[in-house]
Amino acid sequence: MSTRSIFGILALLLQLSALPSRAFSLIGPFSTWQTPDIGYDLPGVDAGVDDGGPRYRGDEYRLSTPIVTFGFDGSFVEFFGAPGMQAAQDAFSVFNSLTNVSAMSTDLSEFPLKADGVNPLAQTLGLVDLKTTVMTRTLEMLGLTTPDRWMWALRARFVDGGGVPHYSVLNMNYDPVTGLPSRYVNGTLYSYVIREVIGPGNAVIGYDSREIPIDAAFPNIALASMSRRDRDEVLSGRLETAVNEYGRYFAGLTRDDAGGLRYLYHPANRNYEAAPVGSVRGSGTVTSIGNNAALDSPWTIVGGSTTIGTNAVGTGAAGTQRQLVNLGVRAGVDHVRFVRVDLDPILRVSPAPVVVSYPELVVSNGLVISQIVLRTNTQPDILLSAGDLGVAQWVPLYLQFGLTYANNGALLSGNAEGPGNIEPNVTLRLSKVGLYTTNDGNSDEQDGSRGLIWGSFDGSTNTPIAYPIGSRLEDIEAAVLLPSQN
Prior knowledge:
Blueprint: H1 3-17, E1 25-28, E2 53-55, E3 61-62, E4 67-72, H2 74-96, E5 116-118, H3 120-125, E6 127-129, H4 130-141, E7 144-145, E8 152-159, E9 165-171, E10 184-185, E11 188-198, E12 204-213, H5 231-234, H6 237-242, E13 248-250, H7 255-265, E14 270-273, E15 280-281, E16 300-301, E17 307-309, E18 328-331, E19 337-340, E20 354-364, E21 367-377, E22 382-387, E23 391-392, E24 395-396, E25 399-400, E26 405-407, H8 409-412, E27 420-422, E28 426-431, E29 437-438, E30 449-450, E31 453-456, E32 465-466, H9 473-481
Parallel strand pairs: 3-27, 4-19, 4-22, 6-31, 17-20, 22-28
Antiparallel strand pairs: 1-2, 1-7, 5-13, 8-9, 10-11, 11-12, 14-18, 15-21, 16-17, 18-20, 20-21, 23-24, 25-28, 26-27, 29-30, 31-32
Helix pairs in contact: 2-4
């Protein structure tokens, strides 16, 4: 190796070392070894609601479509009203406003290390921000999970004949620039301690490598951090305070969130994957699909409010219908766009089928094929709904959300755990129980603990909105504050 090459490599390493430290975690189906006894999908008050486990880099799961539709059913509209619909719309607008991930800067300096804040009144009243919740679940659907939950993860636990436990600990966060494992989240350094996980009845339900922020009284959390649901059992004190959702809001994505999306959806990240379930091949006039201004954001609503598509089409003569190339090598879609469709408020379906179409290039059997992918849906890809979601033991569930995974890597190698698809067909159901109290033993109202209340708020002096729509803050203040004064 020449001296010039050595100096070039050293310069590159120095440049990378000067970049802000960061990392992201990937989500996918739980591996067979990711069991509750070593900290995964823990039972307890929120039993069975984890949407997946952390994945190794290269085994990621992501959407294979650049267009995702969303809509509100009648139950959501009735409970949250127009302000709630606008809050959700604003959440999706955050993602729509992003540039193509391939156009993001190397150091991602256009994104902040900290994007969250606390509204004091909303925190006092126990309000949870609707917009932030929708953004968090959308980020999860895009393939990211909590980086400060899976910074350190147990791979195995073994107890020897003398009763001494032994552990192997993984670092499952990845730097978006180098691709290497990282111990930072938005510039905050983490270590870990291995502790028992205590469940109901003070029973030990597993073990976990608990992340500890180093020299940071207020760690910089990511938006993806808010998707955790097994909070109390696995969090250190400082981190528990940082991700407490009462009164906390996010204005947008942090640097680590953006870095994770750039990794997943960059066109240079090519995976063996399928088109979304239910896709067929569209038809149209022949055109070239290249890197030009017309295709930077080609998706527009055409042919009426229920057709989402583009004038850029794939191979074949106009009017022809050829079989879709489903499984193949696909590049990251560069930018996922979220489009609202309106539903019949009673029937909870679209008045007319929603047609989504987009052009793509896919490699199959060594050939690069240009085609139009077309999906026809009677329900949006993301349906926002409200209801009584039941209880876990005695505590009302506040949210239901599940992801559908397809492991395409296993089709190439039987023991592969990825990469794969996340299917764009989810329902985000939010509790409409409203204000409630939990009590222990023979007690009264003043001994109760207040449950969460959905709200909309930010860092301004605007009065928070509480749901169900029409709720008066004075009534919530009386319910939350007055009993404690007795």
